[in-house]
Amino acid sequence: MKFRNKLRYRIIVAFLTLSTLLGVLFATTALTIREHLSTNLIGDSIKKNLDEYMEKLVKDPSGIQGEPIASNVQAFITAPEKLPLVMPISYADLNDGVHDIIENGKHLKVAVNKRHMLKGKEVWGYIIFDVTTPKNENRLVYSSLAGVFVLFTIIAYFLAIYASKKILKPLRSLSSMVQHQGDKPKHLASHFSDDEVGQLAHALDEYSDRIASIVIRDKEFNADVSHELRTPLAVIASTAELINTQDDISDKTRLRLKRIERAVKQSTELTETLLLLSREEQKNVRNLQRTQVGRLVKDIIDNFAATIKLKKLDVKVIEEDWLQVKAPAAVVSVALSNLIGNAIKYTPQGAIQIILKSDRVLVVDQGTGVSKDELPKLFERHFRGDAVTAKGSGLGLAIVKRLCELYNWRVIIHKNDGSGLTAELIFT
Questions:
Q1: DSSP labels for 33-49?
Q2: Where in the chain is the domain with CATH 3.30.565.10?
Q3: Residues in Cβ contact with 27 at an 8 Å cutoff, skipping those fewer than 6 apart
Q4: To 10 degrees, what angle do helices 396-407 and 329-345 make?
Q5: Which CATH number fits the domain 181-280, given the four candidates 2.60.40, 1.10.287, 1.20.1440, 1.10.3470?
Q6: What is the pLDDT of residues 59-116, one digit of tens each?
Q7: Phi, psi of 162 (to 5 degrees)
Q8: Smallest Cα–Cα separation from 51: which of 77, 21, 31, 28?
Q9: What number of CA atoms fall less than 13 Å from residue 303's CA on the CB side?
Q10: Exposed, middle or buried by CB within 10 Å (0-12, 13-18, 19+), for 330?
């Protein structure tokens, strides 16, 4: 699972993103408040102090010029004509109120009062406040904010880990319970509270019940059909055998009876295999039987003798090694009959080789084959290639795949260098 797809990491990333946004908001707010304090509040304060001082001065005129009261604060009381003696002439143009002035690289807050008269003459009052922030102070402020931001991020990270564990704990429990469900699934919703996880567990219970019901009906249907087919097949087989014992039937009729017997045998094997698939019997039971594959292949070819003769195909069985399989003969017969039958059906002319090795059977044909895009789809139910003209349901290879899954076999189909396909049924 990729990093971005894990729910736990999504929660952690969400927490860290939230902490980052909150940290940026906190820093922005702190700097804004600091700027507000250093500008508006300072300006209001010095203007208020100046106004109060000027009122006291008018009532008690003990002097008209003040002195510096601090390193960053200066207060001046002067007459308009004497202003150039104590401060720059440009200050004469400042109106009553608070002004921001940049002078010699310094940020000055200047409060001006020009509303009072002393002895019939105008008196101007000035308070100059240096609000320039020292570089060391700026570094301290930014360092403090950065430290708080890092600390906040670390705390958010550990909170995210803790929260993700708490949040995902019910999901992990639900996942573990689903993984350890047996053949008869138990309901999960009773183990969880009525929250989102409980609702998910309830939905899984309902879905599991529906799937179990479908599987049971499917198995019962397959078992019933397979069981009921045995009786008519047995009747057909016994009737054909009874007719074959009569002395007054022709050779042509006996040949047809042989074909009926082979068809009955093939149908019986298919019925037994479908019944086995519906039951999915335990491996230790089905491994009690052993089948000689070479002999079985010859019987299968005999079943297709009429078609082989009609198409004039050259079918060869090459036994490179002796092959015995731990499986019922009916199962092996159905799997090989589908592979060999397809080779015969889709080969209009030419040769077919059936090669027996120590662990597998290869069926090599010279038929029309399929395209590379169609190869992966051959084992899908009801799939038929675009170039296929012969009749069929498209279930044969799907049944072979089911048998391989049940017995841990493998089946591989690939294109030949020339024409046709090669099907490999591997028994190990």
A1: HHHHIIIIIHHHHHHHH
A2: 284-426
A3: 145, 148, 149
A4: 150
A5: 1.10.287
A6: 766 544 444 444 567 778 888 888 888 888 888 888 888 888 888 878 888 888 888 8
A7: -65, -45
A8: 77
A9: 23
A10: buried
